[in-house]
């Protein structure tokens, strides 16, 4: 009987085989056997302070590395607390495996203590989910979960494990292969379509690459770069695609969309060929659909067939892994370059000069500096200066997120970690924990709003616990800034429940946790305070008070057309006589 | 407009929930749904009739095909196929109306599955429109109770079933997420 193994140990054995280094989690009643097995196991467990943050940390880890992030929670409240983080990963296609404990199989359905229908609750919060009904199927399911999370269009996968499955003992037989007959991946792309796409790219007069999160997820940055250089294509990167093409690359225009740049949106509106790569034509990018790129034909490459022609009908749909497809597309482009390039040369030159004109006409605007108030844009510019395109930056959702995306340059993929699709407040701090664990030698900024920071504040303990030198920068405007901006612009400035006038004294708050914190209010102190935070070997909490009423521009109002941006605040009308 | 979808899926716990959940989540309305095992007991065949804007019919099929447990989802709306529904109908019959009811039932090809002094239970299969007529006619004779099975359909085309091959487990299989240097 000596080679019998418990379910908990088998699970760890499977995680080991999948190369898992660390698990972000929180223990509880039914996961006791699992935590007992973890006690002397080399896989590291990171104890967070709330399960939601375990899911966010796993997402941050995955976004920063491309490896599967793992989080763990107990049954009932533990599992339900994971849900926001799972949906977040679903929306941003992040490879995450969530392990949850469940009450023993004999108790399922009896409304037992800490029982919740995790399987049912997370059906729509995951790419796929499993409940392990008996020990014999556990190893198989764990490997299936990792495969599903990481392959194709990545996403979160949850495995619900009843307590008796953890405790049960059986012979462990390593699983050599798995078979998911219905999970068909099309990765190569259709040869004919790729050839036609190459032709169409050379024929276009005003082509535009619209690169999204798929470039980052698919590790396709080198191929994207080759593409845009080969055909000298102007490129916009979505919020999730930032860093997919280096921010300092001459072909990079900017981010398009609701708070995208004037040049990026004008290019989107005027292009005659969209080359969509790993994008999903999100409403925050397209604005009013009937006015989105009305003159354009569309090449759409995505690994998820359901994304193609979901929002905008593609003229050339290509289902495939964007890395593989781009490699083949680049080859096809190069083959016909000599004969095809000349035909549209003058139109292309005119297109580029038009784009450069848009760029110089309306760059992302920084309001005039004041000696008294720090402008939020100024804060992001300072962080950009320190980062120099190399730091990992995480954020929540809202104004600080948009200004970060506008002003901080990312010269590589997997540096910009934010909650894009779901737009979860409180994402910045815990995702920074995951990213810092994944990349211990990198400088990590967690840029939070004063609202989002207070949603994930308990994780300060985790940061101290594990000695993570995260630089937390709270962009503190005393409001739920983005909601306030909308109330100002669209609800007659009736500021309803958006005032955050109580904020902890950060010196004391950080001090209470045993690290340094500081508040900065004067523009003159900003650079030195940031330098001091970065120079500090440990975590640092910087509370930066910024102008409370600054709005994010440009702005495409909800339902508006992409070329009809509000470029700035209404100019004060001079009082005449 | 009604869309007829045939789904071949693994007979796994929660598989039905995934399909119905998908419909609710994406705001597609289910008119009817039937499901039963196939010759291979590990698989189920489901027929769904849904009220779907014709423009998004391909999108519905793609979303269903994305479900891991689904082996194949096919749109039979305009494809060569046969579709049938079963109706079980109970009718209260008086001594005077009994013969007429039986005559009418015969016209529709209905079978008597129960007969009592109160009336009959009838069974009939056919295309849904035919069954609507049958129900209307029967209602004219007296109180009825109706249970409809929902549509089942079979494709008349031999489509080759494409399945994913097995894959090796372990760190290497996660190459979709290769670590960047």
Mean pLDDT of chain A: 96
Question: Strand fraction band of chain A?
Answer: 15-25%
Distance between the termini of chain B: 52 Å
Summarize the main sheet of chain A: 6 strands, parallel
Low-confidence runs of chain B: 172-181
| Order of adjacent strands in the largest pleated sheet of chain A | 3-2-4-5-7-6
Describe this structure in words.
- The complex is a heterodimer of chains A (577) and B (181).
- With 577 residues, chain A is of the alpha/beta class.
- Chain A has 22 helices and 21 strands.
- A 6-stranded parallel beta sheet of chain A has the order 3-2-4-5-7-6, with helices on both faces.
- In chain A, helix 16 (399-407) links the parallel strand 16 (392-395) and strand 17.
- In chain A, helix 8 crosses helix 13 (322-340).
- The model of chain A has no long low-confidence stretch (mean pLDDT 96).
- Chain B has 181 residues and is α+β, with helices and mostly antiparallel strands.
- Chain B folds into 2 domains: 2-79, ACT domain (Alpha-Beta Plaits), CATH 3.30.70; 82-153, Alpha-Beta Plaits (2-Layer Sandwich).
- Helices cover 24% and strands 38% of the residues of chain B.
- In chain B, strand 6 (111-115) and strand 7 (119-126) form a beta hairpin.
- Chain B is elongated and about 75 Å long.
- Strand 9 of chain A pairs antiparallel with strand 10 of chain B.
Set down the secondary structure blueprint:
The complex is a heterodimer of chains A (577) and B (181).
Chain A: E1 4-6, H1 7-17, E2 22-25, H2 32-38, E3 44-47, H3 51-65, E4 69-73, H4 77-91, E5 96-102, H5 118-121, E6 128-131, H6 138-150, E7 156-162, H7 163-167, E8 169-171, E9 177-178, H8 191-203, E10 207-211, H9 213-217, H10 221-230, E11 235-237, E12 252-254, H11 262-270, E13 273-277, H12 283-286, E14 297-302, E15 316-319, H13 322-340, H14 345-361, H15 376-387, E16 392-395, H16 399-407, E17 416-418, H17 428-438, E18 444-449, H18 450-455, H19 460-465, E19 471-476, H20 481-490, H21 506-513, E20 516-520, H22 523-535, E21 540-545
Parallel strand pairs in A: 2-3, 2-4, 4-5, 5-7, 6-7, 10-11, 10-13, 11-12, 13-14, 14-15, 16-17, 16-18, 18-19, 19-21, 20-21
Antiparallel strand pairs in A: 1-8
Chain B: E1 2-10, H1 15-25, E2 29-37, E3 43-51, H2 57-66, E4 70-75, E5 81-92, H3 98-107, E6 111-115, E7 119-126, H4 128-139, E8 144-148, E9 152-155, E10 167-168
Antiparallel strand pairs in B: 1-3, 1-4, 2-3, 5-7, 5-8, 5-9, 6-7
